[in-house]
Amino acid sequence: MPYITCIHIAVVAYVSLCILCIIVYYCVYYVSLYRDLIRKLLVQDRTRRLGNMKNGSADVKGHKWFKEVNWDDVYQRKLKVTEMLFNNLL
Which long-range contacts (CB under 8 A, 24 or more apart) does 48-55 make? Predict the structure, then answer.
């Protein structure tokens, strides 16, 4: 059985805590982007609704939630929806 000291346990606990903090941070970050997108799409006033203003769909495409999306691949049907969602969540 390997020799384990309190320092080893503390290091493992610290690294685990850091990994957990990173996961929580990214989950909170993407949830806030998702909420922002939905709130802007569901604005009751049509003149202020995302995608219904001067730039039209370019406003929706330019939202931070879609920053990783290659719209040419979407248009040419090269990108699958599951890949797009998976890439946004991780």
Answer: none
Q: What distances in angstroms separate CA 14 from CA 10, 19, 24, 28, one per listed residue?
A: 6, 9, 15, 21
Domain boundaries, the chain: 6-89
Q: Which of 21, 59, 25, 23 is nearest to 40 (CA)?
A: 59
The token duo for 2 is 């390997």
What is the amino acid identity at position 82?
A: T
Residues of the chain above pLDDT 70, percent? 59
**Tens-place pLDDT, residues 49-77:** 888 888 888 998 898 888 888 888 878 87
| Closest C-alpha among 42, 25, 28, 31 to residue 65 | 31
pTM for this entry: 0.57
Least Cα distance to 37 among 74, 57, 66 occurs for: 66
Is residue 3 within a helix (H) or strand (E), and if so which, with residue range?
Answer: none
